[in-house]
Prior knowledge:
Layout: H1 2-6, E1 10-11, E2 14-15, E3 34-38, H2 47-54, E4 60-67, E5 74-82, H3 85-95, H4 101-105
Antiparallel strand pairs: 1-2, 3-5, 4-5
Pfam families: RRM_1
GO molecular function: mRNA binding
Keywords: mRNA processing, RNA-binding
Amino acid sequence: MAILSLKERHLFGQPIKVNWAYTSSQREDTSNHFNVFVGDLSPEVTDTMLFACFSVYPSCSDGKLMWDLKTGRSRGFGFVSFRNQQDAQSAINDLTGKINLDCICNYSN
C-alpha cells in the first residue's frame, strides 16, 4: 500500500522513490550481529575493502558503506558487523583513531 500511495510524492521539494527492499542471498543476515560505525573513509574505499580490513577478526561478517543516492558516491562512512561482541570491541579498541592504509593498499581482488 505504501508503494502505491507514496509513489512519486514530493518530500522537501524532491520526488521520493518507494519500492520493495531486497537482500542478496549471498549476504549473511547481520540483524543480530554487533555493528561498528567506521568513519572518515576515503571515497575510494569499497565494501569489499572495508570488510578485508576487519576480516582479521574471526567473527567479522560484513562491511557495508553508506552511499549518497543522488551522487552515487560514498558518504565516507560505513558499518562493519561482527558475530560476537568481543571481536567488535577489539576492533574498536585496536583501530580507533588509526589510519590503516596497509590493509587498503595490500587489498587485491
